[in-house]
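Researcher: Structure for this, please.
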Amino acid sequence: MPNQLRQPGIFITGTDTNVGKTVVTAALGLALQQTGAKVGIMKPVETGSAPDKTNSDVRRLRTVFASCKNVDVRNVYSLPQPVAPLEAARTAQQHIDVDAILNACRTFAVHHDYVLVEGAGGILVPLTETHDVCDLIRLLGFPCLIVGRTCLGSINHTRLTLMGLRQAGVPVFGILLNQTDTTPEEQQASTVKLIRELSDVPVMGPLPFEPCLRTDTQVRPYNTQVRPDQWEDGIRTLANHSTIREVARMVQERN
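Model: Predicted structure, token format:
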């Protein structure tokens, strides 16, 4: 295995799928590049990427950063089936090579001031028969930013993710909470309060609910009227949100 990365950056994981990892990655990347830094964004494995790329997170990221000369977006594996990477690779008759991902990330990192690596699903999602996302995070050596929801169930999911990373010896950068739906305000406030109280890492947010940033096909009616330009405009607005600015400052301070 390649040596762990020393380049300033973070691995962005989620407590589940569709929690806003790509939204956070895009907004944070924009906030960092606005400082003049060279930013590398890596989505090592993407599943559910249609042949025409209409539902591709990598395509969304590349579109957002198309006019940014100091941002580069890379992907190693793009698999069409919207299932866990291990099964998506099997269906496509491919094999995900973790060494290849690590080598790609290491080569990519040396050309940028900051690197953001976005995972697939949660930390125990399998990439191969022997490696899951948590293994990849550990081998890369980046601290991990956990993106979680503010709805019911998020306390359990967030604490389990934190526990899993700690058991694997992965340093945790912090928790960024994202309001992904219209859960009643009282329930959300309670969830946020308890996650802050029970976590011994920085807890940022929550980011506000923005229907235009929902792209997952399982959600109705939020995604049905969202145009690509609306998503891009929403990301640019979010990049200036105080929470994203705070996370960008924390990333810079690690340099």
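Researcher: Any notable elements?
Model: Residues 154-167 form the longest helix (14 residues). The chain has a mean pLDDT of 90.
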